[in-house]
Amino acid sequence: QVQLVESGGGLVQAGGSLRLSCAASGNMKRAYVVWYRQAAGKQRESVADVTNSGNTNYVDSVKGRFTIARDNDKNTVYLQMTNLKPEDTAVYYCFARLDGLDYWGQGTQVTVSS
After folding, report:
1. Are 78 and 21 a contacting pair, CB within 8 Å?
2. Looking at residue 58, what is its pLDDT?
3. H/E/C letters for each residue in 44-99?
4. What is the rounded average pLDDT of the residues 2-30?
5. In the prediction, which pLDDT does 1 show?
C-alpha cells in the first residue's frame, strides 16, 4: 500500500509560480505518475504525466508553463507551474499506478487570482 501526499498549493497572482509536490510513502521508481486537476463544476483532467523511464506528456493548455519531474531518491514527483493563469485554478491531485494498483492523493488547492 502506498500513500500519496500532495503539498505546495496556495493562492497566487496571475503570472506567478508554484511547485506542487507528491510525496509517496513507498518506492516510486517503477510508478507511472499523473497530475490531475479538477476545477469547480468541471471534470477532472490530466495535466501532466511521467513514466518510470522519465517520458513526460502535457495537456496543451499547460505546455511551456508546467514541468513534471520525479526524484526517485526522495520518492517524490513535482509539478512546477509557472506563468499561472486564473483558469489554472483547481484542486490538483497526484495519481500513481504501481504494480497494477492505483493510488490517489487527497488533493491540494491552487487558486490563481487575476
Report:
1. yes
2. 98
3. CEEEEEECCCCCEEECHHHCCCEEEEEEHHHCEEEEEECCCCHHHCEEEEEEEEEC
4. 96
5. 85
